[in-house]
Specification:
Elements lengths: L2 H5 L5 E9 L11 E11 L9 E2 H22 L1
Antiparallel strand pairs: 1-2, 2-3
């Protein structure tokens, strides 16, 4: 691996939050139903951590950071 690739330390993650809903009586599923909360967290090894924010905003930040990573890689090699 080249020195330029080692210098760029990113691991971009996109995590949708959901909450467990208690089963109603009479349901036969042995597991709880997961319902999206509409919030998402974007994290990266470089220190980016948005916390729980609306999913549309998280998608935009994810794409912006992905472009930043691409530009860093292009500049370094």
């Amino acid at each position: 691996m080249s020195d330029a690739r080692r210098a760029v330390r990113h691991n971009l993650r996109f995590e949708n939050h959901s909450t467990a809903v208690v089963q109603e009586e009479g349901q036969t599923r042995p597991w709880p139903v997961r319902v999206p909360t509409g919030e998402t967290t974007v994290t990266c090894a470089c220190g980016l951590d948005t916390g729980a924010i609306p999913t549309d905003n998280a998608r935009m930040l994810y794409e912006q950071h992905r472009y930043l990573i691409r530009d860093e890689i292009a500049a370094n090699g």
